[in-house]
Design a protein that fits this description.
By secondary structure, this protein is of the alpha/beta class. It is 32% helix and 14% strand. A hairpin with a 3-residue loop joins β3 and β4.
C-alpha cells in the first residue's frame, strides 16, 4: 500500500537516483538514429517525455518542444527535434505503434507539442497522473510519484535549462533520460502492486497553502 502524499522534506531524506544506462543524443537521421529506432521497436514499454526551452517573460516566444525522450530499461534516447527540423517518419511510427506502450506524465500536453512539429496518430500512450489514484496516491508530480512509488529522489534542477543549447550538458542528459526512464519504472512497479483506490473525499483538492512546496506544484505539466 502506498502513502497518499509526501512532503519535500521527506523526499530530501530519500536516496538520490538517476538513469544509469546508456544515454544517446540523436540530432540527425543517420546510423545512430536507425539503431535507436530498431531498439525502441523491440520494446513493449518505454518511458516518454519531452522538454522545451523555457520562457522567462511574456516578451519571450513560446519555443515549443526541443527534445523528445524515449527510454527502455538500459538505453535512453534524446531526440533533438528542433535540430532535426521535423519528426522523422520512422520515429512517428514508434509514436503510433499500438504494440509499444509509451508511459509518461501529462502526456497529452507532450503529444500536442509534438503534433505542432508534425501531425501523426498517437497510439498506446499512458498517463501516470491518471492512474495513480487507483493505487491510493494523490500527489501527481513526477518527483513526488517517484518518491512514493519507488522510494527515490530524482533531481529537477535542470528543468528550466536551455534545451536548445548547441550541446547538452551531462547534467541535462542525465535529467532528460531520468525523467523518461523513471516513468517506465513507476508503471512497472504499479503493475505488480495491489490497487487501493482513493475515496471521493481523498480526491478532493487540498486547501490552498503558501509554502515552499508551491514551486514543486508548478513542475512541468505537474511533472
Amino acid at each position: 500500500m502506498y502513502r497518499i502524499s509526501i512532503s519535500p522534506e521527506e523526499i530530501e531524506q530519500l536516496p538520490p537516483a538517476a538513469f544509469t544506462g546508456r544515454i544517446e543524443v540523436i540530432d540527425s537521421v543517420g546510423l545512430d538514429f536507425f539503431r535507436a529506432i530498431r531498439y525502441l521497436k523491440k520494446q513493449s514499454v518505454i518511458g516518454f517525455d519531452t522538454e522545451s526551452r523555457p520562457s522567462f517573460s511574456q516578451n519571450q516566444p513560446h519555443y515549443g518542444v526541443s527534445l523528445l525522450q524515449l527510454s527502455g530499461k538500459e538505453r535512453a534516447f534524446l531526440f533533438r527535434i528542433k535540430m532535426m527540423g521535423d519528426i522523422p517518419k520512422a520515429l512517428r511510427k514508434v509514436l503510433s505503434d499500438e504494440k509499444i506502450l509509451k508511459v509518461g506524465a501529462a502526456v497529452n500536453d507532450d503529444v500536442r507539442g509534438l503534433e505542432k512539429h508534425h501531425d501523426f496518430t498517437p497510439k498506446s500512450f499512458l498517463d501516470l497522473q491518471k492512474i495513480v489514484w487507483e493505487y491510493g496516491i494523490k500527489d501527481k508530480s513526477v518527483k513526488k510519484m517517484a518518491a512514493i512509488i519507488l522510494g527515490i529522489r530524482i533531481s529537477k534542477t535542470q528543468q528550466l535549462s536551455n534545451w536548445e543549447a548547441e550541446n547538452l550538458s551531462d547534467a541535462q542528459r542525465s535529467y532528460a533520460a531520468t525523467d523518461a526512464w523513471v516513468c517506465r519504472e513507476m508503471y512497472l512497479k504499479l503493475l505488480s502492486s495491489e490497487k487501493n483506490p482513493l475515496t471521493p473525499e481523498q480526491m478532493l483538492p487540498n486547501p490552498p497553502k503558501n509554502t515552499a512546496d508551491d514551486k514543486d506544484n508548478l513542475e512541468k505539466r505537474q511533472g
